[in-house]
């Protein structure tokens, strides 16, 4: 069996991968340093038994690096596995940008092509990436594999493509035929091309585009997600590969990954919803366990380029007084607009359904409007920075999420194809809202419908008035049914209601025109114009035209198309101009953020260092990662600089907080460690700490909250009430964008201070989800005391005899965190401050000694060392130290130090100070102040026993307690990551594990000794599980001729042993876990006698 040659260089949260897990045909090193999170690196994937068919030339020449070959091998090996429901298992590639995911995918297709599987499907986000797919196949020596674009294959020519790769976008997958051809949908066309017994490769590249199969709330599943699911269900034998650095940013977005075998038949989770509920209930720690478990099972790999050399900078942009005035005017206009929308809806007697739709459109436009204003505040600064960087010999990439093209086209249509100035995207948002969604119906159409003649306007008599109807938007209620004051003639006539609503609408549009003079123009057009025009700036966006400033000072709209460049490859052409150095500034939007490489590649002319500026923080971390990865990739001369521009607007933190939260989650599940994205975290910002709230501010903020709909006012009584979603933080942060600048800053400061206090309180009470907790960090010493090993059966593999077991462990560790007198004297010898040294405290007539060292001269803060806990986390002021203790000589402190050090090995602080402890007196264990603490860590394939583990956690700690994930490094250098088990003694830990694993059974089984296959020779060898034998049920071992002779005799004899009434203590670990079903088809483990 080959040995694993995996060595680590540990630095912080990442582990540098020096060699691959593979020792056979290792290949050449990857051209750039690649890292893996320390959490993922703490678990090893299964042994490799699969042998690649890829030619030696491809490997020896380095066309596929060692890291890429590792992913290809594990993917091919995983594809030999079948899930309990009969579907072929899939593989998830979570490699970040730059590891060469494209070549890895090409290698998987090439491997299968060489084995006779000539047809493959490759889905991605853009048709432009077809050229990259062809390049990747060509670069690894697979020139004979042709790539066909799905949108170029008509239904009648479907059969003419006999082999090769069909490349398709996700949007084309859900496309429907309008011409009524042979196939109504592209999905049916692909299914016909593949055939019922298709066992080729299906690649879901950038598979995060298939998310939202399991939507939140009232939203519906996306068509893309459902189509991806259907394709997999129709082709159960297909070799599926999910590939995306962001594919598992949230567990809810994994619904389409049904081939991973995490939920469904033969797993602890019957349905995806059960998996989601379990993971989300247990917090971020549970997501990290899922990622590690997937790697342990051999279904997941996630590496990323080292961020060594990458610099991050947050550039805060100050607001000018003119900008603040314009922003505050916009706020007041939106407040009036909200009032008018409300009044008109009441006047028109709008139905509840119509109101709900109207307000949905209103607040959506409200958010977009102020987002555009936030971006506009940074344009001047980004132009200045870009010019400086180009002068300094660098080149600039500016990232945007949207182009505002829709508003430009609307303005162009209104102007009859002509423009007088740059179009304001913000203005277009509000104008479109008022024109399309304001509750004021067209008078002519409405009165015609009601049979009212507008040619003669008459003043109705009181008797006629009582018969007229109010004007409803959806339904018509009579005047007597309407809610109105019971005064004479209080019911408004149809004509008056419509005219009043129309007047409100006209007034709003007039006020918008007045404000529009100060509103900023389209950001993208302004940036290109300020930076020198289209000849200087490479634009890679999805829009088809742009507004430009001509030499004579006029403004006009022009198409982006060029005479010699087709529109479909325009972005690729612009990219090449940037990479050739013809243009040193590039602007990319989401349309260009997937798959396009803009790094300082050694193979291109333009090797200037890239400065990547983000003007607009993406609403989704999925999009953020894609954009950041455009300029940080393999084979680059220099690593990029990232500049995040953040305005002083507190409301803009909404977008930053979304990205920061999603990045945290992204690091947790995609790379197994949520701390992975701390180096690119956007959650830390400098708030204006000078803001204070007095009564005047409070009144203004209350009115501001009314203006953005967070506080409601009763129409008749004027009573104030909170909005029904008052505790929705996302909604709160969205809405405060619509408050005046000074109000939102003050309110956001109050919010941040309150949030900080809540988090601190949650940490003190143990309710804060900290993700991974490090044990043994700093000066702590971790010793492994005991290890209990448990085996559970896995899935069967085709064509390979192997007892496919999943291993998990319960590790008992002892953490020593105190400081001996010898260590204390060494620390004391290095101190030189006048107030450094030993101090003695007295409490309850008992003396203890501490050691202090000044670390902040300005604030007079001291590091405190104690004999029972070592270095104290919290710094203390000199005043507090002097208040509670007295400085002494080392000889006077020595005995007190040694006494507490020795006592704290097994006596808590309460007992040490007071002589007794309440918890200990009632038979419980107290660990407060203990020098030596014992932890039980459940690690390995915990996912396979998740429901059992949950049952124990619920009984011990409550139904909704978060799983605490711990990470530790023992004295012998071993890294362990797993769940902290809620037990304080070995007996408790053993009983809990037994409860989590054992389910007695009385079935009859056939037994054979435990064995596994040798991965090098593919010949089984005897490897007994200590004290146990493995039972063969329903032909788990399918090829007797592959067994050693001594096992063949026992297997062929068909000896059966009826196990009835087995004692709980006799059951080996988790082996009975899968025996609750009447359908037994897994190997089980029992104690031998």
Automatic annotation (TrEMBL):
Please, which domain of life does this record's source organism belong to?
Eukaryota
| Domain Strawberry notch AAA residues, every copy | 29-329
One Pfam family assigned to this protein is: AAA_34
Q: Where is this gene product found?
A: Nucleus
Keyword list (alphabetical) reads: Coiled coil, Nucleus, Signal
| Cleaved signal peptide residues | 1-20
Query: GO terms for biological process?
Result: positive regulation of signal transduction; regulation of DNA-templated transcription
Ranges for domain Strawberry notch helicase C come to 522-774
Q: Which residues form the SBNO alpha/beta domain?
A: 819-931
Record keyword Glycoprotein present: no
Main location per UniProt? nucleus
Q: Which GO terms describe its molecular function?
A: chromatin DNA binding; histone binding
Q: Return the similarity comment.
A: Belongs to the SBNO family.
Tell me what this protein is called. Answer: Protein strawberry notch homolog 1
Biological source species:
Cyprinus carpio (Common carp)
């Amino acid at each position: 069996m080959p040995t694993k040659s995996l060595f680590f260089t540990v630095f912080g949260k990442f582990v540098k991968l020096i060699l691959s897990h593979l020792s056979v045909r290792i290949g050449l090193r990857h051209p750039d340093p690649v890292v893996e999170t320390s959490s993922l690196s703490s678990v090893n994937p299964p042994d490799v038994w699969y042998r690649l068919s890829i030619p030696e030339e491809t490997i020896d020449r380095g066309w596929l690096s060692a890291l890429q070959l590792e992913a290809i091998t594990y993917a091919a090996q995983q594809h030999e596995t079948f899930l309990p429901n009969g579907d072929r298992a899939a593989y998830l590639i979570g490699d970040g940008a730059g590891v060469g995911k494209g070549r890895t995918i090409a290698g998987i297709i090439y491997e299968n092509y060489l084995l006779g599987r000539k047809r493959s499907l490759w889905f991605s986000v853009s048709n432009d990436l077809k050229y990259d797919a062809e390049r990747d196949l060509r670069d690894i020596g697979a020139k004979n594999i042709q790539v066909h674009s799905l949108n170029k294959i008509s239904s009648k020519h479907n059969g003419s493509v006999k082999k090769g790769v069909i490349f398709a976008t996700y949007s084309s997958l859900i496309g429907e035929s309008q011409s009524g051809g042979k196939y109504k949908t592209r999905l049916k066309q692909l299914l016909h091309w593949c055939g019922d017994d298709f066992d080729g490769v299906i690649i879901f590249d950038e598979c995060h585009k298939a998310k939202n199969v399991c939507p939140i709330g009232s939203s519906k599943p996306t068509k893309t997600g459902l189509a991806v699911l259907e394709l997999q269900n129709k082709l159960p034998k297909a070799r599926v590969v999910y590939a995306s650095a962001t594919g598992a940013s949230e567990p809810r977005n994994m619904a389409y990954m049904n081939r991973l075998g995490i939920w469904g038949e033969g797993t602890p989770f019957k349905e995806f919803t059960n998996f989601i509920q379990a993971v989300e209930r247990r917090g971020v720690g549970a997501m990290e366990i899922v990622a590690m478990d997937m790697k342990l099972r051999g279904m997941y790999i996630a590496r990323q380029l080292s961020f060594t050399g990458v610099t991050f900078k947050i550039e805060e942009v100050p607001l000018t007084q003119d900008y603040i005035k314009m922003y505050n005017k916009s706020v007041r206009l939106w407040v009036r607009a909200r009032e008018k929308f409300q009044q008109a809806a009441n006047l028109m007697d709008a139905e509840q359904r119509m109101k709900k739709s109207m307000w949905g459109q209103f607040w959506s436009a409200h958010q977009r409007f102020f987002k555009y204003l936030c971006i506009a505040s940074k344009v001047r600064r980004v132009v200045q920075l870009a010019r400086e960087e180009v002068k300094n010999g660098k080149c600039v990439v500016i990232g945007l999420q949207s182009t505002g093209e829709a508003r430009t086209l609307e303005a162009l249509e209104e102007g009859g194809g002509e423009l007088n100035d740059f179009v304001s995207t913000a203005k277009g948002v509000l104008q479109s809202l008022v024109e399309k969604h304001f509750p004021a119906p067209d008078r002519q159409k409405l009165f015609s419908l009601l049979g009212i003649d507008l040619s003669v306007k008459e003043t109705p008599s009181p008797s006629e008035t009582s018969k007229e109807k109010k004007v409803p938007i959806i339904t018509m209620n009579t005047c007597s049914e309407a809610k109105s004051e019971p005064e004479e003639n209080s019911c408004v006539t149809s004509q008056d209601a419509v005219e009043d609503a129309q007047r409100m609408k006209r007034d709003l549009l007039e006020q918008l025109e007045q404000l529009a003079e100060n509103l900023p123009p389209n950001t993208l057009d302004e940036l290109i114009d300020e930076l020198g025009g289209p000849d200087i700036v490479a634009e890679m966006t999805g829009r088809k035209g742009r507004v430009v400033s001509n030499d004579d000072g006029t403004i006009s709209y022009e198409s982006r198309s060029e005479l010699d460049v087709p529109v479909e490859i325009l972005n690729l052409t612009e990219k090449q101009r940037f990479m050739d150095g013809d243009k040193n500034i590039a602007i990319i939007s989401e349309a260009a953020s997937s798959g396009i490489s803009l790094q300082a590649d050694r193979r291109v002319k333009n090797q200037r260092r890239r400065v990547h500026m983000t003007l607009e923080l993406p609403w989704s971390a999925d999009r953020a990662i894609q954009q950041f990865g455009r300029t940080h990739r393999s084979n680059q001369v220099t690593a990029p600089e990232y500049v995040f521009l953040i305005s002083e607007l507190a409301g803009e933190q909404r977008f930053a907080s979304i990205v920061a939260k999603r990045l945290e989650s992204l690091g947790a599940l995609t790379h197994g460690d949520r701390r992975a994205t701390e180096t690119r975290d956007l959650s830390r910002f400098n708030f204006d700490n000078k803001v204070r709230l007095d009564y005047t501010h409070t009144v203004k903020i209350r009115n501001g909250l009314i203006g953005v709909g967070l506080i409601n006012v009763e129409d008749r009584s004027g009573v104030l009430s909170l909005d029904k979603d008052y505790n929705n933080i996302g909604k709160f942060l969205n809405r405060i964008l619509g408050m005046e600048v000074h109000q939102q800053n003050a309110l956001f400061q109050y919010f941040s201070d309150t949030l900080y206090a809540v988090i601190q309180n949650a940490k003190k009470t143990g309710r804060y989800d900290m993700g991974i907790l490090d044990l043994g960090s700093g000066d702590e010493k971790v010793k492994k005391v005991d290890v209990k090993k448990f085996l559970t059966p896995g899935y069967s593999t085709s064509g390979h005899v192997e007892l496919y077991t999943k291993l998990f462990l319960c590790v008992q560790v002892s953490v020593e965190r105190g400081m001996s007198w010898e260590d204390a004297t060494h620390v004391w010898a290095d101190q030189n401050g006048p107030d450094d040294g030993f101090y003695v405290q007295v409490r309850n007539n008992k003396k203890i000694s501490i050691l202090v060292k000044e670390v902040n001269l300005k604030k007079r803060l001291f590091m405190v060392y104690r004999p029972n806990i070592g270095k104290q986390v919290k710094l203390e002021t000199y005043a507090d130290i002097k208040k509670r203790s007295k400085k002494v000589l080392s000889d006077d402190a020595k005995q007190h130090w040694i006494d507490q050090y020795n006592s704290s090995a097994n006596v808590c602080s309460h007992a040490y100070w007071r002589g007794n402890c309440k918890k200990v007196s009632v038979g419980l264990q107290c660990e407060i102040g203990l020098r030596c603490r014992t932890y039980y860590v459940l690690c390995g394939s915990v996912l396979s026993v998740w429901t059992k583990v949950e049952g124990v956690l619920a009984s011990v700690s409550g139904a909704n307690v978060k799983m605490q994930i711990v990470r530790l490094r023992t004295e012998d250098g071993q890294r362990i990551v797993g769940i902290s088990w809620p037990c304080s003694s070995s007996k408790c830990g053993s009983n809990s594990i037994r409860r989590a694993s054992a389910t007695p059974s009385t079935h009859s089984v056939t037994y054979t000794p435990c064995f596994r296959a040798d991965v090098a020779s593919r010949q089984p060898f005897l490897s007994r599980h200590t004290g146990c034998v493995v039972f063969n049920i329903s032909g788990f071992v399918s090829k007797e001729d592959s067994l050693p002779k001594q096992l063949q005799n026992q297997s062929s004899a068909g000896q059966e042993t009826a196990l009835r009434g087995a004692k709980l203590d006799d059951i080996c670990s988790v082996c009975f876990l899968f025996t609750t079903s009447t359908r037994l088809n897994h190997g089980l483990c029992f104690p031998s006698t």
